[in-house]
Every structure is written in C-alpha cells, then in structure tokens.
Amino acid sequence: MDRSVAACAEAYVRALYVVALPEGGEAVMRLGHPCAPLASVMAARGVATACFLTAWNPRSEPRSDAENQADQDRLKAEIQGLGLTWLAAEGRDPDGGWASEPSLVALGLTFEQACDLGDAYGQNAVLFSGADGAMRLVFCLLGRAET
Known about the structure:
Blueprint: H1 3-14, E1 16-20, E2 26-29, H2 36-45, E3 50-53, H3 65-81, E4 85-92, E5 101-107, H4 111-120, E6 125-129, E7 135-139, E8 145-146
Antiparallel strand pairs: 1-2, 1-4, 3-5, 3-6, 4-5, 6-7, 7-8
C-alpha cells in the first residue's frame, strides 16, 4: 500500500465522527462500532442506511472556508433534492493535529448514492452504515473497495 494511502487510512481509523442528534446532544462514533443513538434516529425515521460525508477539502487538500462552505451547502441541497434528510456532523482528530471538518450524516442514502456523492465532491472516502449505526470506511477514489 502506498505510504500516503496508508497514512490517510490511519487518519480515518483514528478520527472521531460526531453527529448532532435531533433531540439535542451529540453521538461520538468510531469506525466499525455500533452507534445506538444513531441507530435510534434511523429507526425513528424509518431508514436502514446512513452516510457520513463532507464536501470540505477534496482529496485532503486544504481550501478556503468560503470554497468549502459553498460546496458543503451544495451537498446539503443535493441530499434534500433526493428527498432525504441530514444531520449536522463533523470529523475530529482526537489529538488535534488537524482542524475539525464540518460534515453531515445523510439518512437513507443508498451505498451507490453515497459513493457517487463522495466521488462528485472529490472525497477520498465516505463512511457508510447499516441499521446498527456502525460506520464503515469506503474509499471512493480507490475503486470503491469497502474496508
């Protein structure tokens, strides 16, 4: 595995994924671990899938806040255009080595839609979950190989 790909994968594994819950508060998710609060929200909304994604910093290359926010707003509109809802979220470095990235959790997005949006916004990866709320890392730009 290329060193930069390995470093990128390690950053995704170490990150904390935080979602704002509709009833208040937040849930902190780790890759591969069920998230009961997210699973409850999904069940209440009648959806069996969720995707954690962002439009910020395509291909992990920093851009201005204005550029990132414009694309994030466009992503939100696309999800709403699909008739789906989203929850505010962010990816955090537990060691503070990189700035938190505004993100969202799209409820009811299919796996194919998740990969398509990740590709469209130049993201290295998205996180995809079934009904248990356990997010799994999906590398968009590496042939959509789920890890």
